[in-house]
Each structure stands twice: as C-alpha cells, then as structure tokens.
Amino acid sequence: MAETRDRSLPAEGYRLEIGAGGTSLVAADDAGARHGRATLAQLRHAAGAPGPSGEPTLPGCRIDDWPDFAVRGVMLDIARDRVPTLPALFALVDRLAGWKLNQLQLYTEHTFAYAGHEDVWRQASPYSAADIEAIGAHCAGRGIELVANQNTLGHFDRWLVHERYRPLAIAPDGFEWIGGIRRSPMTLDPANSDAFALVTDLLGQLVPVVGSRRVHIGLDEPWELAPERRPEWVDWLRRLVALPVMASHEALVWGDVLAADPALLAGIGDGVTVCEWGYEDNHPFDDRAAALAGAGVPFWLCPGTSSWLSISGRVENMLGNIAAAAGAGLDHGAAGILTTDWGDMGHHQQPIVSEPGLAVAAAFSWCAASHRALDLDALATVLDVHAFDDPAGALGAAVVGLGRVPRLVTPQVPNMSALVFPLLLPQWRVGRGATAGLSPEDLDAVETALDDALALIGRARPRRPDAASLLDQVRATVSLLRLSAHDARLRLAGDGSLASVPAADRRTLAGELDAVVSEHRRLWLEAFRPGGLGDSVAWFDHLGSCYRSGQADRGWFGPF
Fold first, then answer.
1. What angle do CA 237, 146, 522 make, to 5 degrees?
2. Whole-angstrom Cα distance, residue 310 to residue 409?
3. Cα–Cα distance for residue pair 187/257, rounded to 1 Å
4. How does residue 121 score in pLDDT terms, banded at 50, 70 and 90?
5. With helix as H, strand as E and coil as C, how does 17-43 read?
6. Is 268 helix (H, G, I), strand (E, B) or coil?
7. What's the pLDDT score for residue 554?
C-alpha cells in the first residue's frame, strides 16, 4: 500500500482509496496514518473470505475521514475492586486503539502501590510503578495516551477507614447519606494541612510515573463538604494546580461542584479543564456545556457506559447519553469526550456488559453525525463484527438484549437498574420506594428476555481469543438477573421484605446465590487480579446471610 503525508488534511485525518490500481493512504500525520490502517483492517475483516490474492476482495472506495474531537477517551474504574491483569488490559487497549480512541484513564483511589501507604493497598493487588510504565508503553505504541486519574478530595473512604488517616476527614465519625444509610468518612478536610500533605505525596509519586502532561485530580462528590464551604474547594484546587509536580500539566477536574455553584467558575484559574459528567440520557449536557463555554473554561463532556449497578447494562440509556454528550460537545466547543466505566458497589457487572458503551463511545467521539441513526439492532451487528468477531451474528444481539432488560420493568431509577436492589440492598422492600410498581408481569418479561439471550448464545460463534469467557460472562449475567427476578417475585408475594418469604424459599435462593458467587469468582480471576474480589463478594455474602436469617440490616451499605 502506498502511504504519504498531506499536512493540509485535518489533524489525525486520512484519505484511503481502494481501486483497480491498488490501495493508497494519505494522512495528515502519524495518528492519521494509524487510523487509516485501522480502517483498512476493519474493511478487510468485514469482507471475510480471501480473494485470489490471498486477501479479502475489497470494494472500490474513497474514504475521507477525521475525528470530531481531539480527545476521545475511556476511563476505567480500577478502584472499585477490579484491577485488570496486564494481559487483559493490553487486549482491551488493542481493541480501543482499533476503534480510534486515543486516551485511557485508570481511575484510582487506593489501587496504586504508593510507598509508605502499604496498609491502604496491601490487599488490593494494586498496580506498581513498573506496571504503570508497562501499561503506558503499551498504550503509547498504539497511539493512546495514558493519563493519571487519582481522586484527591472525596471518595477517600478506602483511606479514611484506617485509624492512621481518619483524623484527616471532614467527618471522622461518618455521616448520614441517602435513604437512612450511614456512611464511613469519605472526604478529606480541605482545612487540614496534613490532608493536603497526603495528596501532595500521592501526586508526587504517581504523576512522574505516568508521564502524561494531563492529570485528572478528581474532586467530585465531596459529600460531607457543606455548601458554605465550597470556596474551600476552589482553594484546594488552586493549591493542587500550583504544586511543583503539576507544573506544565493540564489539571482535569470533575464538574459537579461547579455545576452546583457556577459562581465558582470565576476562581478556578488557568491550567484547568472541567470534565462535565452525567450518566442519564436526559442529562443537561447542552446547558452545562453552554455555561462552561460562556465562562471561557476549557471542558470535556463525560458520559458513561451505563454498565455499573445494572448487572446487564442499560443500552437505551447509554446510547442516548453518549449521543447527547457528543452533540453538545460539537455545538459548544468541547475539546474532548471521556466515556466512563464505573464499578460502584462491588463491580458485579461482567466486562462484556461494558463493550456496547465502549464501542458507542468510539463511534460518537470520532464522528457523531455518521452515527445519529444508530439503533440497537445495528449496534448488535457492529459488536459482532468489530468487538466479538461472531460470524453467526448472535452474541451482539444477546448482549444488547440483556442491556434492554432494565427498561422491561416499571420502576426506573437514575444511574442504576431497579433489579439491583434485591441483591445489593436487601433491606429495602421490593415493590416500595425505588422499586414501586414492580410487578410479576414485569418479571415475566425479564425471564423471557433471559431465555432469549441464552438461545442466542447457543448459536453464537465468537472468534476472539477469549471467546469461551465471553459466552460464560453472558451466562453469568443471566444467572444473576434470574436470581434477582426470583427474589423479587417471592417478595412481591409477601409484604416486600425478606422476612415475608418462607424459609424454604429463602434456602432455595441461597442455593442459587452460591452458584452465582462461584462463577463470579471464577470469571473474575480469568481477567482481574485477586485483590478486591473479597470486597466484591462481600455484597453477596451479606445477601446470603439475609437469606438464611430472613432479616436485613437497615443501615447496610457494603463491607466498609
């Protein structure tokens, strides 16, 4: 293939021509050439059978292509228990690069091996400095920027649970949260000099190892920080940006505090990019982006894969959420799209559940206009060709079908599926509160969808190296959803509580749960490090104890 450069093309752009005279690629730069070769590889893969020359016969075409956004990133949550093995992470990076994504952030709270803080990460199987260097090198070889992402104010519960660090919290004794739940301390006190010394130490260790000129310092959801103390949030930000280790770096911060109090925008100063996040398909990306643009503040928009707290994904929501972010970003001048994949409350969704969101993120951050008509049936086909390599065309439909399950039930809950509540918060009565309106007919529809998914994977033939695991992940997802539906059905026959379920039925549920947990453990260890598995399973262990006793602790909210 003839390959040349043309600097007049848009950055990262390319022109690919296939004709009787052969194939030629003209690129604006090295990134454009890499993207052009990726497109050619996709065309060859989709064409299937080889022609007389030994390669697939490709249709004649000319493709002029370039990205909508300079930054097209994915953020993986490795703090909520699940730290990928390096081979599993490298395989994902290869897939993301093939889809023309160009940034990876690994969200950490306690899963980097910080020197002097072994008591925090000892059981978490964290990444070492050598691991991060290896990940960075693998990413760089594929045109992906690895960016440090360490929360530095809120979400510090994995630190503050230790007596050594507890005095650094705003509320060392914990605080009242949502729904009568009492949480352990989560937020550092910005008035505490020792708290600032701690995060200074963490950034001083992590930032030089990662090497990017961008650093995500978090600052989202400081639950215990009273509204009247929000100016301290801005001061904390400015002090972090002024650290020597942050010199010449772009600081990325989450935008929720600034959205709650837009007057703070005037004080954030230079060198800061705001990452406006929201995970529902009706999130006001347009309004938030307009406000940031009007204030002259650089910003990215951050939708999500809608995988977490769903068991099976929420694909309708995910598609609308990512499309809205890309549209608002184009309209108001966002510099990037960062799509997040979280693991709240134990990371119980299987990795395959995130793949539709990652693929949609790649599509819309590259060219939103080309994908505005993308529907879920087309997404299933795209997944079979470009994610799962399933010539039977079945696995994509199974995964997308499972992702539709949360909308088969009447109760619709922001940022999660109602089917999660019986499993993770068994103290809450089914059919009331967040699950009000759930009916046996809803659960019938869920069961039908689960049967359909199993039928589809019965004929799926994925050719990815991890093909067997992909099919097992779908089966595990079906089993967990079936347990939730069975639990909910039994509770609806009573007063909604576990206490109203007969003991014999609870023993049956406990047996189903044992099988779910065994498979959860097995699949985890195929692709993730063992640290964190115990914390993930602790949610299921608690559910098992509730099945055995018929009682549930009203204040339960995880092993911490």
1. 110
2. 13
3. 14
4. very high
5. EEECCEEEEEECCHHHHHHHHHHHHHH
6. coil
7. 86
